[in-house]
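Now for one record.
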Amino acid sequence: MKTADIINGFCELVFRDRKGNKIYPNVFVEKWEADLLEVTRSRLTYEYEVKVSRCDFHKDSKKQDQNGNSKFDNILAGGRTNYFYYIVPDGLVKPEEVPEFAGLIYAINGTRRADGYTEPIIYFHVAKAAQKVSSTKADNKFIDKLNLSAYYRFHKLRRINYLKESKNG
């Protein structure tokens, strides 16, 4: 299972089942990046960090910003998100291995029947619920930054696809 598969599958889940919530894949906001950031209708934020190897999962705890603060210090300081989750392939990490404040979601390969045929799908199971690390809700300025970041990313991808199509004739 690849990171992109999990991100796409989780975006589909939010679009399908969490009407009114917004999901932002691979978004940069100010000094930090999130694999997925969900903003609920009530303006709570959920950050999801996708890991597909144990090595990458263990490296995450060593990340620091330019001031020497760890990623976890920044999350617990409350300036980043309301809830923080790891999404990993089923069984890759045990719930007791994630930090106390963090949640854990398993991504599970499966299939579903649709219009007479079977299609692959990724199911998600919450193995450990995250603790609330901040009560600060997303304001309009923050949401505008997310929208702008997503807008630039969309146009960058369109430009890349256009260049590929131009080369291929």
Notes: The chain is about 35% helix and 30% strand. The chain has a mean pLDDT of 87. The first strand starts at residue 22 and ends at 29. The CA atoms of residues 42 and 88 lie 27 Å apart.
